[in-house]
Write a structure and sequence with these properties.
Elements lengths: L3 E3 L4 E3 L7 H9 L2 H10 L4 E2 H8 L4 H13 L3 E6 L5 E6 L1 H4 L2 H19 L1
Antiparallel strand pairs: 1-2, 3-5, 4-5
InterPro entries: ArsR-like_HTH, HTH_HxlR
Keywords: DNA-binding, Transcription, Transcription regulation
Organism: Bifidobacterium miconis
């Protein structure tokens, strides 16, 4: 039996993850869009169109692909409501929310870096 990390609707094969924990984290969030998706979902649930507007210059195709990958990785939860037209909302899972300290550290570092350049 292959060991897995299981969650709501995802199964990640532990054997496919890098041995190094830093590399594992980077594998999950290394795309710039994924970091921005995490940042914009930290305050709470958003619909697709809200998320696309908040991120800025991202195509629908790229946002969809990143959200699907993040859902498969267990970082994002996708809720579809049976309405006409269908309403879809995205939120962070507990695993996704646990990346808040990483996002906060990136924010702080970026602020410090910009301050040093301005000085």
């Amino acid at each position: 039996m292959i060991p897995t990390i299981s969650g709501d609707r995802f199964m990640v094969d532990i054997n496919t993850l890098p041995v190094c924990p830093v590399e594992t984290t980077l594998t999950l969030i290394s795309d710039k869009w994924k970091i921005l998706i995490l940042r914009d979902l930290l305050p709470g649930t958003k619909r697709f169109s809200e998320l696309r507007r908040s991120i800025g210059r991202i195509s629908q195709k790229v946002l969809t692909a990143n959200l699907r990958q993040m859902e498969a990785d267990g970082l994002v939860h996708r809720e579809v409501y049976p309405e006409v037209p269908p309403r879809v909302e995205y939120s962070l899972t507990d695993t996704g929310r646990s990346l808040k300290t990483v996002i906060d550290a990136l924010w702080d570092w970026g602020e410090d870096y910009k301050a040093k350049l301005a000085a």
